[in-house]
């Protein structure tokens, strides 16, 4: 295979990162924007040891699942990757991605239950984080180009809400009028880094969080007035101060400019107060279905105790609490734990308690204390659970482990590690909370092999 040379090939699969795969001269070639069944000319742009990267130059037979992308930014924006295929095909790709990981990494040949697709693939996100920059002397917001920090300017995004897009415009206009410069990553000059908007779809509340390098901003009163006029349901405006270099969007310090510093929403029948620092699933309707499945897999009754590791603001913990004797949640972000405690009170739940700690440390400590939950639910970030947590789960020996995951590869690795602790995968189901992107959620039920 030669770089820059064009080869004729068929797209045979989707890759984990949302690109597609062709096989040329026995080598896997990753190709963005392909649909399984496309027959195309592919130009090789990079060759690594065991694989290569290519670009579609011409499609001479289109896949039957290929559609005209509705998003005009689809070929450039790094946020989505599936606007060129039907939603049914996207769901098949996501379900297969999880099944392949469970088989290849987890070593288990098992089919998932029927994939749960989103009722809507448009405007489903309750959270927007727009990077802010400047182009041709104009303030821009948008989304990053894939694998870069180049901002693709965008007025409207098909998966964000109109309210969030309007607030981004409002902040851009304020910046232009009062000469508030965007932050420049290279020179570390300027102020505004991101515009973060979170909406409560059940309550209509909207919280605006402006991520800035410095708290000293001009014309703050004008910003508050403009934002309130733009979104009448606005419940608060918060500054987040991030002076750090690197990719983390949020810094550690928050200053409330106006209104509340939390947003309220309703999920699985419980009310939740959410700080900007607290995790909250971006697709509320699908999150309810995901958590209902987790609850069903947990098979709790009023005699059982449950431990919810990586519990965030208590969304799963409080859903479990209604069906359990007692629940314990553990979470590392202090604001989320404060929210969780308040949320228990807000919902008159008295059988839930929360620990602010690393999940591994909390689980180890609970195991040493002799706590033996009947069920442990884990919902870790993408990197999955660490060995200390796996060992502590083994020591506590619950009947069931319910694993909620946003990363099929680490999920499959951890299912294998939990297998070494005596747990067997019983069933799993894939949920699409992120239509048109490559992200996917899975819930797994593991039971003790001796049960
Ligand atoms: C995918 S979120 C799930 C949150 C919650 N279960 C929910 O659905 O809203 C993962 C959570 O793990 C937390 N987290 C990350 N690393 C952690 C650690 N080492 N120990 C405990 N929690 C951690 C994050 O702050 C986040 O709240």
From TrEMBL:
The keyword Ribonucleoprotein does not apply. Its EC number is 2.1.1.190. The active site is at 406 (nucleophile), 406. It is an enzyme of class 2 (transferase). Pfam families: TRAM, tRNA_U5-meth_tr. S-adenosyl-L-methionine binds at residues 281, 310, 331, 379. One of its GO terms (molecular function) is methyltransferase activity. CDD domains: AdoMet_MTases (cd02440). Keywords: Methyltransferase, S-adenosyl-L-methionine, Transferase. GO terms for biological process: methylation. Residues 1-58 form the TRAM domain. InterPro entries: MeTrfase_TrmA_AS, TRAM_dom, U5_MeTrfase_fam. PANTHER family: RNA M5U METHYLTRANSFERASE, TRNA (URACIL(54)-C(5))-METHYLTRANSFERASE. Belongs to the class I-like SAM-binding methyltransferase superfamily. RNA M5U methyltransferase family. This is 23S rRNA (Uracil(1939)-C(5))-methyltransferase RlmD. It comes from Butyricicoccus intestinisimiae. The lineage of its organism: Bacteria, Bacillati, Bacillota, Clostridia, Eubacteriales. The gene is rlmD.
